[in-house]
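User: Continuing from earlier, I have the next pair ready.

Assistant: Great, send them over.

User: Here they are, in order.

Assistant: Folding the first of the pair now:
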Amino acid sequence: MTPPKLPSRSDDLRGAVRLATDATAGLTGLVEAMHERIARLPGFKPPAEPGRTRGITGLVYKTVRGVTRVAGGSIDALLGLLAPVLGHRQGSQGSAEREAVVAALNGVLGDYLVTTGNPLATPMSLRVAGPATGRVLVLAHGLCMNDLQWCRDGHDHGAALHRDLGYTPVYLRYNTGQHISVNGRALAAQLQALLAAWPVPVQRLVLLGHSMGGLVLRSAVHHAQQAGLSWPGDLNDMVFLGSPHHGAPLERAGNWVDIVLGATPYAAPLARLGKVRSAGITDLRHGNLVDEDWLGRDRFARTADRRQPLPLPAGVRCFTVAATTGLNAGDIKDRLLGDGLVPLDSALGRHTDPARTLAFAKSRVKMFSGVNHLELLNNPAVYQQVRRWLA
């Protein structure tokens, strides 16, 4: 199954128009900061003031902010400001930059983009990398990211497992701003179609999720089983890298967005919208996996954990990796902060309620010290552990 055609420049423009309809001075500053980030690329003279563009472009932004203060409403002029950010550079590198910005935007406002029919909303897709083999590896990325960002500092777990163990990587791309259960249900259906059309017999099926991606995979297995789909019967292994099985306290302050987007220079200004908190972000408070966890509830209210307990799938080998940025995983600070986003207990599936505790076998749990949330994507020791498990 191949990914859908990338949105065209006209789609970007139409999406920008939709965003402009709800624009305020704050959003104008956001777009300007994004524009300024891309202007820092090689060959561009950096601005005199960080976050502010120069010359005619800077004058336009200043004018738009002024109009916003007077009108207090929508500004079609933002159309011409956001579009250059999304279509500024041509070629593969420019495409990767654009996709990173769009993925970040979807993580923060993805549910809104879908509700309003905005063409910037990311449709779910599966990308098969390389020839089909009997070993299928499905990789699900985390919040505000996309399938291209599995490659970090020259390393890609999917490509490495193809090289070393003969797995065919299948990369999931999805709108991380939507509810996890919505993405889980959609993924269940897409995997059914993908595997039904797989050109060779499937000998081994593995699901690998980083961060939110692990929750989407768990939700997909649940929904597939509920719907009587066949592919969960072929599932052998699930591997979770820093997945917040029981949520993360940083969700409330929008720190997820601050940290994840801060690692992507072209998307970092979107961290200013962190407190908007999409449905996907608020699901991370406790780790919602099914519709019943959020239906009929105020997702912004500070409520107790009322999730429906969802155990690990029976008959499937489940592995989990947890990390701490400190040097000693036994310190209380390290246990609470974990990898900077996910506490150790959450990543390990531990819970004070035995009904919610995930039964990972001791041999299928690994903790790493001195590793942060994003480094789980390219840390050599983390990869070697995953490789040993899946050999």
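And the other member of the pair:
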Amino acid sequence: MKIVTRRSRAKSDGKSNILCLTIDRLNPDCLGAYGATWLDSPGFNSLAAESIVFDSYYATSLELNELYRAFWFGESPATERREKRSSLFAALKAQGYRNFVVSDVEAIALYQDVDGDELEDRLLFDASDADAPATSIEETAFFRQFAELARFLSKLDDDTKRGDAEPWCVWAHLSGWNERWDFPCDQRRLFQEDEDDPAPYADVAPPYWRREPTAAAKAKRRGARVESTTTHENANVVRSSERARLDALDEADRRQSVVEAYAAGVNVFDETLAGFLELLKERKILDKTMLVLSGARGCPLGAPSALGVPGENDEPSPFYSEETRIPLAIRLPDMTCATMRLPALCEPRDVYETIRSWSEFAPALKSEEFWRLENVEISPFAGVWSGDKQTEDESPKSTDDESTSRRVAPPQDEPGANLLELLADETGSVREAVFVVARDAKSQERALVNQDWFFKRTPTPNDSELSEPTEKLELFKLPDDRYCVNDVADRCQDEVERLNAAL
């Protein structure tokens, strides 16, 4: 990783640093802090014990470019961009921060919508492909990237200790399970339950198989097995022998094989995260830094539709909660409200606003008046998109009244909210629904999530040019059905009509 840091002329004014770690395809159901009992994650659990953890945090797009519109510009991917907005880094620079973007994904490190003068530097990790699984954790991409990031942060800390540097904001995006599965084979075998179990998935390129393949997908796969290799979207190579082996397994064995390999990645990530955080504590960097650890997109592990991540030539599977629900932990410098869990619905736009307003808001956390607040401002959409049964008087009506029309309009254009305001009232909320789009604003595959429902609308292809377009509507009850397995749309028609109207 090449590091080019410009010397700042101004001195720090006592503001806390900001470190954002975004890990792609991190599934919260594989983390102990989110309830996993079959997989240990002491590193993340320790961070969660020092942080504020959010249980209902959802990605709003499955396309990284669109997702970072929310992270860095506070925009919803469900809406078309009308004009370029000021970025998060522009706001932080105006507050005296030096900004850095670090990633092994070129599209993120060189994100074109962020002006170059808003960043002190863009740093690109070595993203060379691996031909085979690593033989040790130290050889994995996770370990090498965390080590590079630790060295860079140490250098920034040395600048700060000399008293000649401004506070910094570092946003590090790691491709995680989306780019390469180079986790050691001995780590993968740790999760085999029985000697007779099928061997864990052993390839480096991420797997992707639909749970119930269509006839077209089966034909496509038969063609792929004839070829010697299949190209993955990230220039990795999927061995046809590994694909053929998994295709030959039944559904349960296929899922177990992939889950074992994914769990090995969790072990590698967790161990490297623990070492990384320990170093930051030894250097006392965390004492003066707000740390935000966020997922980017979830990784489907077979419940209910797919395994792994999609390749460029693979038929995409409809997304569900497992691919959109992601972890979020915010550790404040003095560990304010450590171990607190918040159920409020939130999304990447809220992370944008939380970081943007951190320096201005931090003094409020030390104010007695803040902790005396009885209520956090509730969204104007409260009660409209929730699953609570509405009375006739509460139902939205067609009228010219401005306040009523605002309540009826879908809340895609709501600005992000500072999640730290929820500390004054942990039962409060910042939004009543999260909208998710498959790729971008033009995509017709969408979902709406609230505290009660995961509602999904998927276009179905026409059999002929003369037929009318159709849509598949699905409804899943949350939190009882967090994996979106039992579709209850046919039994809750009123909810389906109301939620579909919002989409």
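Worth noting for the second one:
Residues 1-12, 220-239, 375-409 have pLDDT under 50 and may be disordered. The longest helix spans residues 251-282.
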